[in-house]
Fold these 2 entries.
Entry 1:
Amino acid sequence: MLAKLDLAHTSPLTSEHARQLDGLLETLSPEEAIWISGYLAGFVRRAQPANAASAAPATGGTPITIVYGSETGHAAALAERAGELARQKGLTATVVDTADFRPQDLKGVKRLVVVTSTHGEGSPPDTAADFYEFLHSRKAPRLEGVKFAVLGLGDSTYEHFCQTGKDIDKRLQELGAERIHARADCDVDYEDQANEWIEAVLGFFSKEDGPSTPKLSVVQGTGAGAVPSASPHPHAAVVHDAKNPFPATVLESIVLNGRGSDKETRHIELSLEGAGLTYEPGDSLGVIPQNDPDMVEALIEALKLDGEEPVPAGGAEIPLREALTRHYEITALTPRFLELYGNAAQAGKLRALTAAENRSELMAYMAGRQVIDVVTEFPVEGLGGKALTEMLRRLQPRLYSLASSPAAYPDEAHLTVSVVRYDSHGRHRKGVASTYLAERCDLDETVPVYVERNKNFRLPADGSTPIIMVGAGTGVAPFRAFLQHRQETGAAGRNWLIFGERRFRTDFLYQLEWQRFLKDGVLSRMDVAFSRDQEKKVYVQHRVLEKGRDIYAWLEEGAHLYVCGDANGMAPDLHAALVDVFQREGGMSREQAEDHLKTLQREKRYQRDVY
Ligand SMILES: Cc1cc2nc3c(=O)[nH]c(=O)nc-3n(C[C@H](O)[C@H](O)[C@H](O)COP(=O)(O)OP(=O)(O)OC[C@H]3O[C@@H](n4cnc5c(N)ncnc54)[C@H](O)[C@@H]3O)c2cc1C
Ligand SMILES: Cc1cc2nc3c(=O)[nH]c(=O)nc-3n(C[C@H](O)[C@H](O)[C@H](O)COP(=O)(O)O)c2cc1C
């Protein structure tokens, strides 16, 4: 039993809370009290709003500012993890989203850690655009005396791999800051490399500060003196994430396109009953797919492998066939695969292509080709399953915008999936996850899923705020969720949807539902752009230009503008169309129009979810 503390006089608690806590403390053993202290530390951290900069307890040493630029949440999660680890090491660390980082904040920073992904075609995430621009502008301050390190996230199948991380790293050095650790350019399998990098960077700062006693009471481990963290709570709910997905039962899977369409877009309904998963309109569902068994067999046959050979996968040794089905990307080519396979095959052509100076030739070779093309063109005798899996990267989850609102469909998740199928280099190709969902997930079977939050694609908190939604193809999915949510919550704000697809007759996704929303007055206005119904292609950006006067008027009245869908063609064209509209309707110069759009973005009134 612990000695009674005079909490009513020594704490900020109300006298009632102080009395209750004093009473509880009297009954606790020291072990129980230690456990509760760890539990509360974790509880408080988890209760902090996700978008707030998480301040650290003052523990001495020069404070570290960890700034992240993230679109789909990976860099944000790593930055938060780095902040957490810094605090466990007794360092002072603050984690800030680039979207909330004001240029003037850079002045006081002495230790800067940047964690950023790359999006678009080598551009910063939308939320990091201002930060990136400011750093590269003439207004950026000199940074002599600042110690920095940059962690880049990307995907090596893109031509501009980790470009934003590279640019920021270079720029910080140009501004006079001192790089204390080499930049890491992490591919989609980033966990191990990123964790090692974070350890090394924080290790540097710890060493620089000299020995200090960690003050935070959350310490990993169970040895003597270790304080348990909040996670071992015996009744804590199971958390479903990419590593521990929830098996969601398929309730519905129907093709939305009409007969004769050259597209297959599926509406898929999944049951989340019992998952304890919550989501908001704007979030995505992560799907852990399996590879096409025909492709698995084709690879095994092409390389004369033994499908039963035990190989390492997911922390265990399992038969090669299962490993290729569930654990490795067996279609997408990466520069790393081509380099390793080129060496094994002693293929001069592949070796030349993977030389650093031949990046554009390498990208041209990779376009439309897959692993099966390479192993067929350059066969290797006796490669073995283990050697093959060491060359492949881990199978990645795919994200799908949630097309339902939990307010309308509690315990369900609806998706709108465009099934990827195309021909290239003489072969028929199938997208891994979209054909897994379309062809191999029958009704009543389960699909492993988790929720990927997107705090940068949110309905306005005030339901009376008008919204304009621009969605092309499957980009309309989150707007179905938005409208359901606005209907269920009785939000009074006006809703305008601008939808684009190929053909009115076959590709008007969810046509009846929009008509119902119009009839019920939920949808105040709808405009459509069917690109292939007339000789001249018409896209959503053309509708935006055409309806510019009304769009400008809505925005002037405080509307929020949302854009979802294709990142390469639609999003930049739409952005340009909006600039045109502001020039024309607002009498702005090009520069003022660009600035106006940036201001809307900063105020979270212009949000994009493009892929
Ligand atoms: C935040 C977010 C939300 C998303 N929401 C949705 C959504 O709501 N609905 C949806 O359908 N998708 C959505 N996606 C895309 C989705 O995650 C997958 O990328 C998509 O389904 C393809 O995955 P796959 O495994 O089927 O194809 P993969 O096996 O990953 O193959 C796709 C690759 O094939 C190649 N390829 C595709 N077409 C061609 C072609 N014609 N010629 C040559 N090469 C080609 C490209 O390299 C492409 O990257 C979203 C993505 C993100 C990041
Ligand atoms: C639409 C889109 C475009 C992307 N463009 C690039 C790119 O040009 N270069 C790159 O290295 N990675 C690119 N990526 C990969 C992301 O950087 C990678 O998935 C990263 O882990 C995302 O981190 P985030 O969730 O913090 O944004 C792109 C991803 C998406 C979805």
Entry 2:
Amino acid sequence: MLIAPFMPGGVLVGTVDVLLLGAAGNMGRLIAAELAGREMSIGLAGRNSEVLTQLARRLSANGARGEVRTVDVTEAVPVTEALMDARVVVSTIGPFMRWAGPVAEACLDVGVSYVDIANEWPAARRLLDRDRHARERGVTLVTGAGFGVAATETLVLRLLGDTSGAPARVRVAGAPAVATQSPGVASTIREAMSQGAVTYREGQVAREPLGTGATVLSLGGVQRRVFPGPVADLEAARMASGAPEVVAYVPEPSARGADTASYAWAEVTWPDGRVDTAELRLGDGNRATAAIAAETTARVLAQDGSGAWTPCRRFGAALVTDATDATVIVHRAAA
Ligand SMILES: NC(=O)c1ccc[n+]([C@@H]2O[C@H](COP(=O)([O-])OP(=O)(O)OC[C@H]3O[C@@H](n4cnc5c(N)ncnc54)[C@H](OP(=O)(O)O)[C@@H]3O)[C@@H](O)[C@H]2O)c1
């Protein structure tokens, strides 16, 4: 582990635990603070060296260790150079449909593990398709290490328990409450929604126009209008359950409300018709994402486990409650 002060200007002083891409962004700052709190050394990476240097000063005043690296992910060579002496890369640069691929490929080439906070279905699916390559390279890839994916994935895994047979249907929904919406989130949602409504039907990907399959769910005791969205929760629920029918809902923007709590919901329908549900509640969704990303990163550093993963499949359903103050309630149908 590097023991050195922040070295603004990109001077390489050794290996950092984490190269944090997009460190100056909304999520980057929150994740940097969480990583520093876990005593990891950080390479603060992004396009704007001035902003990164200010962030480095604030972090080092609190005892954090690391350095600043100027990187634009549209340029392949500097990305590879920047991650070469990191133990794990954490990427907050979306849309992940566009940037997860090139960054993950650079990690695979160099042999460095990778964690992202993607919540776009195509990005997750493509990242998970790199499983064999990751195992060959001895690299761990984790996608969806945030509220998006982990909050519904923990519920699905809890509902499945030790059951070996696949359920008939799994439905999930995530409704994060966030204080601010950044340019990165806005562009990511815009690009992701162009995929339309994506679900699994009879085990196959089904695509329909956005808005198809809209319904009303009770989230946090409030009835909210939701619709199937092209979110990574879909892929995580399918992989965890093996169910042929899977739907991941997102709230209609007008139905988000002024709630300061974030909610996730999951429902498992068994072949005999029993229906089990589970709910999760926590505070600010972005803070939860930062805590989940940092905890995932700490575990990637601490444990071997090559391959491509979603966070709770790799580190267990308790990851979310270990990292955040989430409360979970499980309702099981009578046998
Ligand atoms: N899974 C979840 O639950 C979850 C939760 C929150 C956010 N997210 C996702 O995380 C992503 C980031 O969100 P955010 O709120 O942090 O966005 P943000 O505040 O806009 O920050 C994005 C950061 O990425 C940097 N960046 C953009 N393009 C870059 C490039 N080509 N090379 C290097 N750096 C680049 C930006 O740098 P500049 O300042 O130079 O533009 C900025 O620092 C979004 O895709 C969002 O959807 C997921």
